[in-house]
Design a protein that fits this description.
- With 278 residues, the protein is of the alpha/beta class.
- It has a single domain, classed as Spore Coat Polysaccharide Biosynthesis Protein SpsA, Chain A (Alpha-Beta Complex), CATH 3.90.550.10.
- The protein has ten helices and nine strands.
- Strands 1, 2, 3, 4, 5, 6, 7, 8 and 9 form a nine-stranded mixed beta sheet that branches.
- The longest helix is centred in the C-terminal third of the chain and has 33 residues, at 245-277.
- The relative contact order is 0.14.
Length: 278
């Protein structure tokens, strides 16, 4: 029987974390025969190649860093299974992660994609900052706000044209818009039952680097607005924040502070650009 799931892991400069992610993929309850496992190496993963090339179905080496979106797209092009499952290389999927994503697609024929729920791996406080990792205890409407913990029907992905590699940090939202445009009744869902252990941020250095990267992504939208992407981001859906207890008490103010840092870096970019034009 041909595999149902193309499980795609894009990696760049990972070491032990990639091993943990792939061990988690190999342990999926759907069974090894149900998965076509593809690793896209965006660079600096030679040691991992030696350990995993003969254990996965496809090991794809890229001549340059394609980014997350480009790497995922390369993985789609290299595989054939009808359901695309994307797993971050620094996350660990729960044993029933793939099965739970597939179950939602089976139950909801109108669903073109489904994303799971992320929980902290090693950094609970940094991860509590993220308002999109946990949407609550029920299946609900959402967008691809957890790209590295999601499943998309191949037919829908290819029909929409796949990831736009120029939309780093907004690629999931942008693709969501094109997926939903294909059919009037198309839906993207969230399920709390497909769990990915993954940290939103991995330390103070990561806080600063991610803030700068997000500022650059937001600035690109400021310079070259995308009305379709803006419409997707403003969709009139109540997206639940599933954080409760200490995660809410600590995470919400920390996230506001983080977004303030992003705004500061974005303002610096604007000032620098104006100075260059004067």
């Amino acid at each position: 029987m041909a595999p149902r799931y193309a499980v795609i892991v894009v990696t760049y400069r990972r070491r032990g974390q990639l091993d943990d992610a792939l061990h988690g993929v190999m342990a999926q309850s759907v069974g090894r025969d149900a998965m076509e496992i593809c690793v896209v190496n965006n660079g600096d993963s030679d040691a991992a190649r030696a350990r995993w090339r003969d254990r996965v179905d496809l090991w794809v080496d890229s001549e340059r860093n394609l980014g997350c979106a480009g790497g995922r797209h390369r993985g789609v092009e290299s595989t054939t299974a009808p359901v695309l499952v994307f797993v971050d290389d620094d996350g660990i999927p729960a044993p029933d992660f793939v099965a739970e994503l597939g179950a939602v697609l089976d139950e909801h024929e109108e669903a073109v994609a489904v994303r799971g729920r992320a929980v902290a791996l090693r950094h609970p406080i940094f991860t509590a900052m993220c308002p999109t990792y946990n949407r609550g205890p029920e299946v609900a409407e959402d967008l691809l706000t957890l790209e590295g913990g999601s499943a998309i029907r191949r037919s829908a992905y290819e029909g929409a044209g796949g990831y736009d590699t120029s939309r780093a940090f907004h690629e999931g939202m942008e693709l969501s818009g094109r997926l939903l445009e294909q059919h009037r009744d198309a839906r993207i869902l969230y399920t709390p039952h497909a769990v990915l252990r993954h940290d939103y941020l991995q330390g103070w250095d990561h806080v600063l680097s991610k803030a700068r990267a997000l500022a650059a992504a937001d600035d690109r939208l400021r310079v070259a607005p995308d009305p379709k992407l803006d419409a997707v981001m403003r969709r009139p859906i109540h997206y639940r924040d599933g954080r409760t207890g200490w995660e809410s008490w600590i995470g919400k103010p920390l996230h506001r502070a983080f977004r303030g840092l992003v705004s500061l870096y974005r303002a610096q970019r604007v000032l620098a650009r104006k100075a260059g034009l004067d």
